[in-house]
Specification:
2 helices; single chain
C-alpha cells in the first residue's frame, strides 16, 4: 500500500470524542438492581461456589444462596445487595 493511499483515506475524516451518544452514556446512572433487601424470590440454583453456596440468577443478576443445592427450585429471602451480586438465605 502506498503512502498516498493511506494519506488519502484518512483525509477529511474527523473523530468526535464527545458526540451525543457518549454524552447520553455519561449522564446515565448505574442500572437498577432487580432484587431488593428483605423481599422473597423463587429461583433455580444452577451452580455451586467453592464455599458450597448456591448460585442463582434473577433477571441475570447473580444471587448467592447460603447452603443452596444444585437443581433445586426454592424460595429465597435477600439479605444483602451489592453492586454486582446479592446474598440470600433459604426461606422455609
Amino acid at each position: 500500500m502506498s503512502y498516498y493511499r493511506e494519506r488519502a483515506y484518512s483525509r477529511g475524516r474527523r473523530r468526535r470524542y464527545d458526540s451525543d451518544a457518549t454524552r447520553k452514556l455519561k449522564r446515565q446512572g448505574p442500572p437498577a438492581k432487580p432484587v431488593d433487601v428483605g423481599k422473597t424470590y423463587d429461583v433455580d440454583i444452577n451452580e455451586i461456589t467453592g464455599k458450597g453456596d448456591g448460585i442463582a440468577r434473577v433477571q441475570g443478576f447473580i444471587v448467592f444462596v447460603k447452603n443452596g443445592k444444585t437443581g433445586k427450585k426454592i424460595r429465597v429471602k435477600v439479605t444483602e445487595v451489592a453492586d454486582r451480586f446479592a446474598k440470600a438465605t433459604i426461606e422455609i
